[in-house]
């Protein structure tokens, strides 16, 4: 098992990860760090925990939007997909709700695993 040191919100965190996943984890941490920097610019004084929570919620919101868009495109393709793809945010027909739920569960499990690694001594 490999370890990588990442910086988020001005703090260093040592995280364990599978061998070969170091760069991916570093890239993810940089993305979260960018979110925390944006929050820090907009909110004068919020604690680290709240800032990380808000950054996580922003990322989760982006993920939700991306998953919904993927589902729309997949439904469009399954339906014959002629012409242009539906616009983002177009009303769906509920196709793939179970797949979205499974994807969210997998993402939540991965986030929990990362949190456990962060909290490990």
State the main characteristics:
121 residues, two-stranded antiparallel sheet
Short overview:
A hairpin with a 2-residue loop joins β1 (2-8) and β2 (11-17). Helices cover 62% and strands 12% of the residues. It contains three helices and two strands; from the N terminus they run ββααα.
**Biggest β-sheet strands, sense, barrel:** 2 strands, antiparallel
Please compute the radius of gyration using only Cα atoms: 18 Å
- Tell me how many strands there are: 2
Helix content: 55-70%
Numbering strands along the chain, what is their spatial order in the largest sheet? 1-2
Which regions are unreliable across 5 or more consecutive residues at pLDDT < 50?
none
The helix-and-strand class reads: mainly alpha
Beta-strand percent range: 5-15%
Encode the helix/strand succession as letters.
EEHHH
Descriptive account of the structure:
- With 121 residues, the chain is mostly helical.
- Helix content is 62%, strand content 12%.
- The protein is built from three helices and two strands; from the N terminus they run E-E-H-H-H.
- The protein has helices at 22-42, 48-78, 97-119; strands spanning 2-8, 11-17.
- A two-stranded antiparallel ribbon has the order 1-2.
- The longest helix is centred in the middle third of the chain and has 31 residues, at 48-78.
- It is globular.
- The model has no long low-confidence stretch (mean pLDDT 80).
């Amino acid at each position: 098992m490999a370890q990588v040191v990442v910086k988020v919100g001005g703090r260093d965190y040592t995280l364990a990860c599978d061998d070969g996943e170091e760069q991916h984890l570093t890239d993810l941490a940089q993305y979260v760090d960018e979110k925390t920097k944006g929050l820090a610019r907009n909110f004068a004084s919020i604690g680290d925990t709240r800032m990380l929570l808000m950054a996580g919620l922003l990322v989760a919101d982006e993920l939700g939007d991306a998953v919904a868009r993927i589902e729309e495109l997949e439904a469009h393709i399954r339906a014959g997909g002629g012409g242009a793809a539906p616009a983002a945010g177009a009303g769906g027909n509920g196709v793939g709700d179970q797949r979205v739920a499974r994807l969210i569960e997998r993402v939540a499990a991965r986030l929990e695993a990362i949190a456990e690694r962060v909290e490990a001594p």
